[in-house]
Amino acid sequence: MAPRCGGNPPRSALRTPHWNRAFTLVEIMVAIAIFTIVIGAVYATFVSIMRASQVGRDAAAQAQRQRIALRTIEDSLMCIQSFQASQKYYSFILENGDAPVLSFASRVPEVFPRNGKFGDFNLRRVTFALEPADNGEKNLVLRQNPILMDEDEDEQKYPLVLARNVKTFAIDCWDTNQLDWVQEWNDTNSIPPMLRVALVMGGNTAAGNAAPEYSVVRAFAMPSGMMPAIVQMGSAYGGPGGGNQLLNGLLKK
Fold this sequence. Notes:
Layout: H1 11-14, H2 25-77, E1 80-81, H3 87-90, E2 93-95, E3 101-107, H4 115-118, E4 123-132, E5 138-146, H5 153-157, E6 160-163, E7 166-175, E8 180-182, E9 194-201, E10 214-221, H6 229-233, H7 242-252
Antiparallel strand pairs: 1-3, 2-3, 3-4, 4-5, 5-6, 7-8, 7-9, 9-10
């Protein structure tokens, strides 16, 4: 049969060769490179989001610990007590420097930490101290003991940690003679009229050494003063009840 002249060409002539429909090696390598770049960008974004989230959580936790520490100090200071005739138990102790200590007697409230341990002994000596931790940092710790009892072994070895990674714990007292803040209070038989506490905490975040510090300074006015021995014992007014007579006389003035 003679070939047809004119008309449409055979279908086999219209088919694209098989090797034209596949990807070349260069195209595959370019696609892999683009895919790798996209995956890397997505991973970097994910890591940045997780790191920022961790920094935010750590910052919030650090700020919360700072508030708890200051609230505990405030609660104890607002219930401070001192009796001149019993300075063995009611002395006010303040030390600054490398190992600052703040210690006094207080009738702590019911919401005070470790109240369950001491039961009805709410009149306790509270001692705030800055001590080194095992990781090289410093922690603000709280120790307590009932006013007529010694500090037990458990409180000595395992104090309550109020704040970790504390850079500065400084206490200033208002001196009515100098009309200025002082860092020493040698008159342990009296209570300063005002107290100023500075607390600086290092950033415990994923940023490491670049993490920000958290600092706060707060002043507290003491709601009570030292009870003089003459009022407590009443010896100048002839025995029991004399202190009440003296106190009533002072109030009438």
